[in-house]
Amino acid sequence: MIDSALTNLLLNFLFIIVGLLAFALYFDFKKKTPSKGIVIILSTFTILLCVLFSYKLTAGVYVDLRRIPFFLASLYFGPQVSFVLMVVIILLRYLFIGSGLIHLVILNYFITFLILAAFSNGFLCAKKKVKMLFTVVICFIMTIFNLVFGYVYEAEISRNEYIYLVLIPLVATIISVMIAEMIRKLIIMRRTLSQHEKLQVVSQLAASISHEVRNPLTSSKGFLQLVREEKDEELQKQFIDLSLKGIDQATHVIEDYLTFTNSTPDKIERINVKHSIVELIEMVEPLAQHVSFSHQLIDDIYVEGQAHSFRKCIGNIMNNAIESMPQGGKLSVEMIVNENLIIAVTDSGLGMTKEQIQRFGEPFFTTKDEGTGLGVMAANIIVHSMKGNIQVKSELNRGTTVYIELHKSLNLDAG
Ligand code: ADP
Ligand code: MG
């Protein structure tokens, strides 16, 4: 008899812990607090299991822990949830245990519902100890109610049994509230942490944007001032050209940043990879006289994406390669075709340490004085939007190869 009371109550306790765990897992997966609907479903399930494993004191009087999920859901999620669960408990009690003494169950839960509803607002702001004390008191009152019914209806309860029947619900309540509080704290911590991270990213982005936009604009302003003072028309023209260049540069920076917000209109095209790469090399070659360029490119290979973004991505990787060879070196671009297309950009530059390789592509990671640490990240975002990926192999003082793997688009021209 005692064994069965103990087993049933401990099983009930296990169901409650599993329910709380399911709640925490839901938050972990979905990254948001479960809605009231989910809370009701989860609590109903736990309550059902508790009712199914009720311990029968005597005809019509049953002991279990179904009140604990009811308390927790009521206190943390408010009177609406509380009311629904009260109805659920009474229904489940009726369906699975029967109608014996159901009026007393209704009375018991209705009074508890009123008390919980009255205190649910204050409960959330209360300290942990107060919360615990409050739930323990209510749980104790309900247990006593239960046992008094048992007594009135002539249940044969030994003194040992009393100890179990009073003690286990109390301990279970304390532990459940502690776990619920722990989960609540974790949720709050997670929220403030991610807000903090977001703020940090925004302020770093803002700082680097203003840095990159301000520099060319300041030089434009300088040249425009010179134009005002300059009498020579030829020089005036040159200054105007230079200041226009600065404005152009600033515009480009802003356009680049739009990659992150993805606010450029999506225009998916078939991109001829060889053409794009040759165009890029022709553009950067005159600016990097100290680097010797070579390429092994394959005709008629296409990928799908935005041509402008694709050029931006390969351009960023090529720029890094050039910047890693201040004393000169070799830059080669190679296309390798298997079931996918791999574009390998190899330089004979400074290379990277293990730590740098790990941080490759991390926002704001840069080893350059004037670097923004956004180039690789932008390339990564673009490649991922094309369902591809980027990998890097690098050896310090030897050089680096960046592999960009993309899906080939079917060659329609080859028909
Ligand atoms: P930035 O060029 O502004 O520094 P990136 O995101 O383009 O920002 O690059 C981040 C960092 O990755 C660089 O500062 C550099 O340390 C490292 N890196 C990227 N490509 C290469 C490369 N080809 N060789 C050596 N280091 C590289
Ligand atoms: Mg760069």
What can you tell me about this protein's structure?
Strands 4-6-7-9-8 form a 5-stranded mixed beta sheet, covered by helices on one side. It has a two-stranded antiparallel ribbon with strand order 1-2. It has 12 helices and 9 strands. The radius of gyration is 35 Å and the shape is elongated. The termini are far apart. The model has no long low-confidence stretch (mean pLDDT about 85). The chain folds into 3 domains: about 190 residues, Arp2/3 complex 21 kDa subunit ARPC3 (Orthogonal Bundle), CATH 1.10.1760; about 55 residues, Signal transduction histidine kinase, dimerisation/phosphotransfer (DHp) domain (Helix Hairpins); about 140 residues, Histidine kinase-like ATPase, C-terminal domain (Heat Shock Protein 90, 2-Layer Sandwich), CATH 3.30.565. A hairpin with a 3-residue loop joins strand 8 and strand 9. It has about 425 residues and is of the alpha+beta class. Keywords: ATP-binding, Cell membrane, Kinase, Membrane, Nucleotide-binding, Phosphoprotein, Transferase, Transmembrane, Transmembrane helix, Two-component regulatory system. Its EC number is 2.7.13.3. This is histidine kinase. It is an enzyme of class 2 (transferase).
Question: How many distinct folded domains?
Answer: 3
How much is the average pLDDT?
Answer: 87
Largest sheet features? 5 strands, mixed
End-to-end distance: 82 Å
C-alpha-based Rg, rounded: 35 Å
Order of helices and strands: HHEEHHHHHHEHEEHEEHHEE
Helical coverage, percent range: 55-70%
